[in-house]
């Protein structure tokens, strides 16, 4: 199990942090390698109320997938070929 510190996220060993289940984040998320999202949704994905979201597509929603968009939220899916 990894410990999460304020302003720091470090693995207990190795170089990977694995998280199962849902992770809630309030604020902005970025990575040094760029922005990314999955090209398929096979679970419930929810955008909270009053959020803006930019995703790269195409995105496939599988038979077990659900994509929920909260009230007053905006989602834009930009075709990756147009980037």
Characterize the structure shown:
The protein is mainly beta and 83 residues long. The chain has one domain (3-82). It has strands at 3-5, 8-10, 40-41, 44-47, 52-57, 60-61, 66-69, 74-79. The strands form four sheets. The protein has a two-stranded antiparallel sheet. A two-stranded parallel sheet has the order 3-6. It has a two-stranded parallel ribbon with strand order 4-7. Strand 1 and strand 2 form a beta hairpin.
Question: Which secondary structure elements does this structure contain, and how are they paired or packed?
Answer:
Blueprint (H helix, E strand, L loop, with lengths): L2 E3 L2 E3 L29 E2 L2 E4 L4 E6 L2 E2 L4 E4 L4 E6 L4
Parallel strand pairs: 3-6, 4-7, 5-8
Antiparallel strand pairs: 1-2
Report the uncertain regions: none
Structural class assignment? mainly beta
**Shape call:** globular
What is the number of helices? 0
Average pLDDT, all residues: 79
Number of strands: 8
The biggest beta sheet reads: 2 strands, antiparallel
Specify the helix fraction band.
under 10%
Biggest sheet: strand arrangement = 1-2
Short descriptors:
83 residues; mainly beta; two-stranded antiparallel ribbon; two-stranded parallel ribbon; 36% strand
Task: Give a nutshell description of this structure.
This protein has 83 residues and is mostly beta strands.
């Amino acid at each position: 199990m990894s410990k999460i510190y304020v302003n720091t996220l470090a693995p207990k060993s190795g170089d990977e942090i694995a998280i199962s289940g849902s992770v809630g984040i309030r604020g902005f998320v970025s990575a040094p390698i760029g922005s990314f999202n999955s090209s398929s949704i096979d679970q419930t994905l929810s955008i909270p109320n009053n959020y803006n979201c930019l995703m790269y597509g195409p995105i496939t929603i599988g038979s077990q997938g659900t994509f929920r968009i909260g009230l007053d939220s905006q989602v834009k899916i930009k075709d990756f070929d147009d980037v």
